[in-house]
Amino acid sequence: MLKHEELNIELPHPPRTLEVRSDGVECVIYTGGVMRFSFPLADRTAWRHAAVMLYLTGAATQLDIAREWDVSTRSVNGWVRVYREEGIVALGDRRGRPVTITDKIKRSIVACRENGVDVNETARRLNISTGSVCEVLYGRRKLIDASLPGFDESSESKSSPYAADDNREEDTEAVAEQRDDHELDTETGETQPCTDGPRTVMDPLDRSVDRILARLGVLQDAEPIFANCERVEFAGSFLAIALLGRDTFIENVHRVYGSMGAAFYGLRTVFITLFLMAVLRIKNAEQVNRHSVLKLGRILGLDRCPSVRTIRRKIKHLCFRQQAMNLMNLLGKARFEGAQIPDAVLYVDGHVQCYYGKGRLGKTFSTSRNCVVSGITDYWVNLGDGTPLLCIPTEYNASMVKMLPKILAHAGKLCGGRKLTVVFDRGGSSAACYEKIIAADCDFISYNKNPKAVADELFENGPVTINGKQYAHAPYEREIALAVCERKANGTYRKTKRTVEVREVVVRRDDDGQTAIVTSRRDLSAARVAETIFSRWTQENYLKYTIEEYDLDHLCIYGTEKVSAEIDHPNPEYVKLEKTIRSIRQQIATIARVQLDDMTDRQLYRPDERFRNLHAGKNGKKLRRLGEALRQTRALMANLPKRVSAEDWDRIPSESRLLTNVVKMTAYFIEGQLAQIVKAHWGGVNGNERGMVAAFLKSSGSLEVTDSMLRITLERQATPKLTSLLKCLCDELTVCASTYPGTNLRMVFDVDNYEEGK
Asked: Quick one: residue 346, left, alpha or beta (phi over 0 = left, psi -120 to 50 = alpha)?
């Protein structure tokens, strides 16, 4: 076959999709032969902005832009990142000697702030970075933040996004870089609606102008704008959004994260979208494709809801800030104070999130699946009614005994100085654990893992009612002392001379079995102690409900991270040899027909008079071979450590789990408030209020918009009783006079063609 060179054929070069032309003064950029940008060559801001716009619009790749701009792809990626976070002002030329922040500049920054100028515009006017502006304003905001709930002055240095301390997990709160779109009225204590720019009169179904403003760095979050519509699917979700507007969720979100920079889908929109997905049972971002994004956009007040790619990108951007635990602490404190419980009794339980990916994760026992699985363990802190407060992740499946000091530290911040009582199951039952709790000035209620039986005649005749159930005998109580054991470096435990004095309450069940409970609370009656520990089913029901309804175990961000080298775990080779030794010992005991527990290794492979005949018989050769294998295996174990570092293993990133769990916890809390309203008007006994609420939230309806009101008229339900309950729920929420988050529109609810008694 002839080559092209032999045929003298000149092949055309592929057309250049991106081309930059310059005459020394003006720069013109073409894509596909069409002019896209024209600006003075000396304008370096426009030069970088053109590169960012080409990448964001998909007109060119980072590699093509880097080649034409004569920079690295890392520089292009940096321009895109700072543009998304701070807008076009971040693309200015910042080379040269840093500007010294003098007192005059500080006074100018404060003056701009008092005149309502945002951070980006202030930095542009004074020719300084937005970080310098935030540094100055942070010190000025100290007095304002001190009046907010949950403010801890001792953690102020940690809360600053510019502080040197990078351990943000222990922060009690995070101070946002920008709070221009969500101010707190210090006089009335009420949250003012977010204004991300001037309200424009436009078609609610055509938000192209807002999208252009977001690309230019002017808009930080699109304002919700609604249109009259005769039928809107999922209009019932406005019921949950009405209570969300009265909750502290959106306020704390803005307080912790501040802003996402220039964006059409800003911070408020992203979190309301995630909340909407939870209440509508859209269990992950991929399931958004199964619904009409235009119809979901009607609920958000936008032309369409974010796509799957946008949702995942926004979550990744939020996870990068590592502030989910701070948000959870603020919300947990608000939930605890709102419950107004007399005692600070919190329930703690572990939940294993299974993993099916390709990463090398540690294995642990899952009680829900009754088997050993690859996964990660999270510890949940709930109220007595099941309301979730905190989710504390582990790095490598740490036990409850090891995690308890950290759990107490987080839970103690919610109690407002009251003495904390933690309730947990047998997973944390040990004298060493009880000793740590008492040393931390806290109380506990748990099950006794190794109780001693109580004689039947010691129980007094009842009956006694505990959690609505009658028992024939009253609980028996006594004081006991539990020996404290400490774990040695090789993984074994040794007894100490210390003991823990606890109170034991024994409940005799109807099947004549006994349930032993230990506690450090001596001010509660025996029946009250039993009622408290028996109420753990509310926390278990919460985990089962969220797994089924919200897909709690779903990973919104794929990929794993390496475990810290400071974490250790059982040596797999050592564990494997232990299993081999147990197998060899069992084989020898079977041949010798003896009880394995009564024999030592020396007696097995160096038999005394009882086994001499066996070694001389037909099984003697097999016994000698097994004895030699047992000796060699023991010799190998002697040279291996029991525990090794877990640095070669992976873990699931905790920030993405915490972020999505915060939203799902809020959805559960809001649905619980709606269920309480339904229960008050229903009087049913089967406890299906949450199921009714879930059906109400998916109901269709119509929208009617005025300058100050958003009227939602929902369709009738399948039965007159359900329609009546929906009407009562609508009336209750209308009286609340809630406004849609981000607007001043008061939400009014009604049921279509509702007639009393029909």
From this structure: beta
